[in-house]
Write a structure and sequence with these properties.
Length: 435
């Protein structure tokens, strides 16, 4: 299995180019199901989840070309024939976002068979709200043998009020609504930039959508959609992770090609801790010298502090003076990184949904284990300031969502190397499903 070996203690300096957002690229690839014409996506990150989605779409009969036209980050998808509209368990279990194909498959083919995703390392991950919404749009849904089978000759518009804000749930139903008959009104929608990104692609394909990025989205269904070309937004979580890398090492890093507007909550918190962040339209420069102080965070839906940045912030809080309270409101079990950070010398106590981090503690190297995507990122950050050489095992979790993180870190001066074979298949299938 691949491991990272990281020697800590070096303030990172230089420029990091931010990749396209995995969480935008995944629904945008699923949106290609909605048309028989070609969809071209630019700025698609080269991460394992994208390869998984390629496999998923290909297994249904789609043509998917990553690196199309010799452009590393361009993807061409053509779903002319979807001979087998099934998302198999073998694929769904490694990437929960596979359930994003449910809505577009029913809308386009009138049927879908999608494996139930099951739980994952960060807690239960139900898709009941996707199902409820599709039923309201007239789909008949049967659940047996671990699969959902959904059918609808043509979905019809409906009034959907989400009981809880769900990102992929909003995206899934949005994709279903664009081809439904009549108007769909969705309330209490997720406002994440990834929803807005998907809506831009759908609009370029001919969909009629109002209100994406607000809690209320109104869709007028159309008969058919056509092909389109779309550029994926920069990844705000990758950007946030590198911001923390600059801050935690007392470095000076500039993030290039990011969207600072999507990073407001993280930038705001880092500033509160005494970290300097200078923004332009598409860059953020983070500089941190001297002591930083802790702050409390409480994860919320966008535009609040993202749950996908909670673990990374916690690593930072171990290096800040004073006590920081970290409250996780989105997922029930998203503190898997705590025990590993404690093994490196952190002082963290968890009580229910809140972790109390007492800083500043000096961290020392240890052999630690990555447990899910963002937890793994927090271990990398901790290792960057730990004394000695930290070995992080199971880095396939990181490869799911960070494009060549070790190369980008080396580019700003980190001492990090990978050992083992990159992207081995058996590791991919052993990987637990995480955000
Ligand atoms: C997406 C992101 C993930 C991020 C999360 C929250 C992708 C591919 N993944 O995951 O990185 O951590 O948003 O920002 O975009 N819920 C239900 N019923 C449902 C759906 C969700 O109860 O049908 C609950 C979940 O258990 C969770 C909460 O709603 O407690 C939010 O989950 P959701 O927004 O759906 O997360 P994902 O879309 O899976």
């Amino acid at each position: 299995m691949d491991k990272f070996i990281i020697r800590g203690g070096i303030p990172l300096q230089g420029t990091v180019r931010i990749s396209g957002a995995k969480n935008s690229a995944l629904p945008c690839m699923a949106a290609a199901i909605l048309t028989e014409e070609e969809v071209i996506l630019e700025n698609v990150p080269d991460v394992r989840d994208i390869e998984t989605e390629r496999k998923l779409l290909s297994s249904m009969g789609a043509e998917v070309e990553l690196g199309y036209g010799r452009a590393h980050h361009r993807t061409r998808i053509r779903c002319a024939l979807l001979s087998d509209p099934v998302a198999k368990y073998e694929i769904v279990k490694t990437m929960r976002a596979s359930s994003l194909v449910l809505g577009p498959l029913i809308a386009r083919t009138g049927m879908a068979r999608v494996a139930m995703p099951g739980g994952c390392a960060i807690g239960g991950r139900p898709i009941d709200l996707h199902i409820k919404g599709l039923q309201a749009m007239g789909a008949e849904i049967l659940q047996e043998h671990g699969y959902l089978e959904a059918r609808a000759k043509r979905l019809r518009g409906a009034h959907i009020v989400f009981d809880k804000i769900t990102v992929t749930g909003t995206e899934d139903l949005l994709m279903a609504a664009v081809l439904a008959e009549g108007e769909t009104l969705m309330e209490n929608c997720a406002r994440e930039p990834e929803v807005t990104d998907l809506a831009s692609l759908l609009t370029a394909m001919g969909a009629r959508i109002e209100g994406a990025g607000t809690p209320t989205i109104r869709v007028q269904g159309v008969e058919r959609l056509h092909g389109a070309r779309h550029r994926i937004n920069p990844d705000r979580i990758e950007a946030g992770t590198f911001l923390v890398a600059g801050a935690i090492t007392g470095g000076d890093i500039t993030l290039a090609g990011c969207n600072p507007k999507h990073l407001s909550a993280v930038v705001h918190k880092l500033r509160e801790c005494g970290v300097q962040c200078d923004l332009t339209d598409d860059t953020v420069r983070v500089t941190s010298q001297g002591a930083v102080r802790g702050a409390d965070i409480s994860t919320e839906e966008y535009p609040g502090f993202p749950t996908d940045m909670q673990a990374q912030f916690m690593a930072f809080a171990t290096q800040a003076e004073g006590t920081s309270l970290v409250t996780e409101n989105i997922f029930e079990n998203r503190f898997m990184h705590v025990q590993e950070l404690v093994r490196m010398g952190a002082n963290i106590r968890v009580d229910g949904r809140t972790a109390t981090v007492r800083g500043k503690t000096s961290l020392s190297s240890a052999a630690v284990m990555a447990s899910d995507l963002r937890a793994s990122a927090s271990l990398v950050l901790a290792a960057l300031v730990a004394e000695g050489e930290t070995i992080i095992d199971r880095v396939y979790h990181i490869d799911r969502g960070y494009e060549r993180i070790e190369e980008k870190l080396r580019g700003v001066g980190a001492k990090i190397r990978r050992i083992g074979n990159v992207f081995r298949e058996n590791e991919a299938s052993a990987a637990q499903v995480t955000a």
